[in-house]
Amino acid sequence: MTVTRAIYATATVSITDLRRNPGAIIEEAGNEPVAVLNHNRPAAYLVPAQAFEALMDRLEDIELAEIVRQRRGGKSVKVSLDEL
């Protein structure tokens, strides 16, 4: 049975083509992700550095929000600004 996997990019490249000229692939992609295919299946995604950094910032925000939700309603400690 063949399993179809979604591709989360509008552009694709084979691993072979990526090996031949990675700089051209990166330049052509601009600010968009590229799905790297192995035997016509997504094996990896090539993501621009700026997009990856924004994604990491977003994930950190989500993790911090989860910590806040977990601690909501917990014990609190009063502190004055002078004590900080």
Automatic annotation (TrEMBL):
Top-rank taxon = Bacteria
Q: Which InterPro entries match?
A: Antitoxin_Phd/YefM, phD/YefM_antitoxin, YefM-like_sf
Q: What does this protein do?
A: Antitoxin component of a type II toxin-antitoxin (TA) system.
The similarity annotation says: Belongs to the phD/YefM antitoxin family.
* Protein name, as recorded: Antitoxin
Q: What is the lineage of its organism?
A: Bacteria, Pseudomonadati, Pseudomonadota, Betaproteobacteria, Burkholderiales
